[in-house]
Amino acid sequence: MTASVYTNLTLVTEEKLDFIKEHYIQLITSVDFKEARKHDTLRGKKGAFAKTIEMLDYAKKIGINIRINSMLNDKSVEEILELREMINLYTENFVSNIIIPTGRARYNYSFKDYELLFKIYAYLNSNSYKENISLLEIENFDFSQVRSDYCNVAEKFVFIDYLGNYILCPSLRIEDREDFSFGNIDTISLTDMIEKMRKKMLNVNF
Fold first, then answer.
1. 81 within 8 A of 135, measured Cβ to Cβ
2. Distance in angstroms (rounded) separating the CA atoms of residues 118 and 113
3. Biggest alpha carbon distance in the chain?
4. For residue 135, with 0-12 CB atoms within 10 Å meaning exposed, 13-18 middle and 19 or more buried, which class applies?
């Protein structure tokens, strides 16, 4: 079994990162802008970018397995490519995402060129190992080779939130619906939780 910690790193210390390294835990964090001001505005906290980068520097120094996620919306092509170059300084394990313009997102975000944004998204996730990426490469990329993989929710992994609740996905918050939770680590073992999930989701093959 592999364990991963999702954190924005703003409350993490070097001692906690030492623990993560000692127990072979993967570190997953998010960096959404290369510019501190924009990142801090998105996070709603001044200094968030500086703290995240400080802890990323230490995590890289001690050899932690790092993955960095980024949202591509509300960025120029140049900002996206510059952000990718910066992230490559820390890890090749990079995952980009885009907000689909539906529901509230249809009105809360600007999609001036959504087709190009999707192309960048598909290209980055298909070439996450590349160090230098140009817009010309993206425009000439053969998108027929891109395929969408099932995210393996409820099949290969489960999440434990900061309160110890078992959930299928960070996007399925128990604050929205209580039945998104399959119990808490203080009251139900992982084995019993999986059995409970089997019974609740009979159409899922484990």
1. yes
2. 9
3. 54
4. middle
Rounded-to-integer distance, Cα 160 and Cα 158, Å? 7
Q: Give every CB contact of residue 36 below 8 A, 6+ residues apart in sequence.
A: 49, 50
pTM for the whole structure = 0.72
Q: What DSSP string describes 85-132? A: HHHTTT-S-EEEE---S-TTHHHHS--TTHHHHHHHHHHHHHSTT-S-
What does CATH list as the number for 4-145?
A: 3.20.20.70
Residue 139 — left, alpha, or beta (φ > 0 → left; ψ -120 to 50 → alpha)? alpha
Q: Are 84 and 124 in contact (CB under 8 A)?
A: yes
Which tens digit of pLDDT belongs to each residue from 102-128?
555 555 555 556 677 777 777 777 765
Name residues of the chain where pLDDT drops below 70: 1, 99-114, 127-133, 143-156, 173, 176, 201-206
**Whole-number Å distance between alpha carbons of 201 and 195:** 10
| Closest to 125 in 3D by CA, of 115, 136, 138 | 138
Report pLDDT for 159.
83
Instruction: Give, for 96, the enclosing helix (H) or strand (E).
Output: strand 94-97
- Tell me: the pLDDT tens digits for 81-107? 888 889 999 998 888 887 665 555 555
Q: Is 178 within 8 Å of 167 (Cβ atoms)? A: no
CA distance 64 to 20: 8
Positions of CATH 3.20.20.70 in the chain = 4-145
